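Reopening this ticket.

The earlier resolution said the output was attached, but the attachment link was broken on my side. Pasting everything inline this time so it's all in one place.
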Amino acid sequence: MDFNQNLVTLIITSVFLTSCEAGSETVVYGQVGTEVTLPHSKWGGHKVNTFWYFGSDSSMINNEVYSETYSGAPRTDPSRSGRVSLAPSEKSLRIKNLGEKDFGFYRCLLREDSNSIETIYRLSRVTVISLNLTSPFTPIASQSLSLQCVYDLTSVSVSVQWVGPQNNQLQQDGRLSLHTHNNSLTLRELTANDTGKWHCRLKYDDRQTLASVQVTVIDFSSAYPSTIFSFPGARSLLLPCLLSPSPPLPLSSLRRAGLLAIKWTFTPLSLSLSPSPLLSLETGEMWGNSLNPRYISSSLPHNLSITIDRIQEGDAGNYTCSLFFKDGTVLQRTVELNVLRVVLSPNATLFEGQPFNLTCDLGRPLTPDLQLTWTYRHFLQGLVSVKGGVVSRKEGATEQEKGRWKCSIKKGNAVLTSVEFTLRIERAPVKVWLLVLVCSGVFLFLSLLLLLICVLRRCRQNHAFRRTKKRKTRYCRCKHPQPKTFYGP
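Inline output:
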């Protein structure tokens, strides 16, 4: 009987040791700086004592990390104080902010009275590295990014999946190449949309671990418009030039990524004129060496925008913000400034009845999605709207049309900007009319006087001719004239 009991005990002990030995290679992967949990389910009753030990080798797992008795306060290794704890209602060990020295082997020992259970864990590292030689995790837009998932080899079989910043499992396409032989990926033609956390997902046994890396693509933000509208006389106008990360990268980070210089240039609407420099920043200088006092740079070191003071018609054109890097890459963002102008012909105060043309334009042809509209308040008709940028009054101006006119440029139903113009229409002054009447009277009087003189001279010429005709001697014109005599036969 005793022999049979000893045999049963030996078999149970062998099974238990076999299960413990099989469980000695419970593998868990973790990344430096993250939190990891070594899982262990609840065991025993209410009088369980818990002990967690650590060792760099599987044969020497004797350094106590955490212990907790059912009747006493928990004890923690001073070097891990505040970083290790037990999961609620479980015996799992949580380790926060993993360090390089935390990787190795762990042993969990649970005791209750004379019963006990022991489990061995292996905490292995996984990380994501960049294969880019320069600016590994701050690549420049239009460049390529190569990431590799590196993990310790263990006794478990591991599969790797890549997850993008939008938490979508990545599939190979025209921009993305996945390499299974070294668990890496290559992403070409980077844009600001590629900024975010990239994840390497390890799947092993029934568990999975995510290793992440933050990638910040240096690119211009698309949250600001590239076409801006204004009008002459506007106090100030912001020309945005901000990088895509939020918050933006400081200049120190940009210099580490190879930034050499930042420059603003201006190209007028006339294509015959070459770009002219406005602002420049060389390595080691403070941002904002303005070549024109009307262009004001931001006081923030990460804000490359500039402000134009007092908008003029000549400010219309293209403003280009350029970033120059050591490898020859140049990032450029162009802001197109359109200045809405008003031209009155003739350019003077109008009088009633005087024809005029009122023109509102941008100095260049409008794109099909833009339209100009004039609005003004008529004395009799109320608010009047005129589509198009030209108002022509060949029949002449009327006093009812004087006052404030507003020209608006719209895109759909949205008003992009507007400019106001005061149209002055006046009655002709009394002095002018008197002058016109006097001049007309003098002209008429002189004309009549000249006509009277001409008539009198004509009459005198006719009268003199008639008197000369009457006094003239008449002679006989006979074929055989004979002299007259007073002598008879």
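Reporter confirms the inline version is readable. The CA atoms of residues 91 and 135 lie 43 Å apart. The two ends are 228 Å apart (CA to CA).
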